[in-house]
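Prompt: I keep going back and forth on a fold encoding question. Comparing notes only helps if you start from a blank page. Show me how you would write down a chain together with its backbone fold. Please set it down just below, with no commentary around it:
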Amino acid sequence: MLDFFIKTILINDLENTAINDPIGGDIKGLILQIITYAIGIAGLVSIAFIVIGGFQYIMSQGNDETSKKAAQTLTYAVIGLIVVMASYAIVNTVLTKVLG
């Protein structure tokens, strides 16, 4: 009974729903869009932390402890931005090879 339900109802519903054609493609296109948006958001967060770290560095006014914390924030934000750009390149390359 459960096998019949899975094969007839669920699979047929998945084949006939808009989730297979969300952006003029198939489920792979949807996954590509989700990954692209996630990488874009991660890049924006990295840039926001670069701005925050720069603001902290300026506002430290020569205080060693605060300026070290700000420099650490800047370092991690730049590393995060590099990771985001590398992940975009990797995902783009892999999906180009997979999707053709």
